[in-house]
Design a protein that fits this description.
112 residues; alpha+beta; seven-stranded mixed β-sheet; 2 helices; 26% helix; globular
Length: 112
């Protein structure tokens, strides 16, 4: 097992066997839902690339929205980002996030 970008609370990347687990990714707090969604996806892409993977190898994503009224706007960004590959399995729910200005958080499991 390998853990990267770790501190006393968490690791941003955990690799076990051929599976990559990413910690929850959030966007820039000052952005709207579209901007925060895109930033989440860009952060996910960068972390996966760091360990030799990419978005085509995402197995599963859990998406947490602060408010389900943002579902359509988040999906518009999501659909465009995955337009060139088949999307992963996904769950989406509403949750209170770590800070009130955060609108979306994504948790990813991917293959190496």
């Amino acid at each position: 097992m390998q853990k990267l970008h770790s501190n006393q609370r968490m690791s941003k990347i955990v690799i076990h066997n051929d599976t990559i687990y990413l910690c929850g990714q959030v966007g820039n707090a000052e952005d709207d839902i579209a901007g925060q969604t895109l930033t989440c996806l860009e952060k996910i892409e960068a972390l996966l690339e760091e360990v030799g993977s990419d978005k085509s190898k995402i197995l599963s994503t859990t998406v947490w929205l602060k408010d389900m009224s943002d579902f359509a706007a988040m999906n518009a960004v999501w659909d465009e980002w995955f337009s060139d590959v088949l999307p992963p399995a996904r769950a989406c729910g509403e949750a209170a996030l770590a800070r009130p200005e955060l609108l979306v958080e994504m948790i990813v499991t991917a293959a190496v």
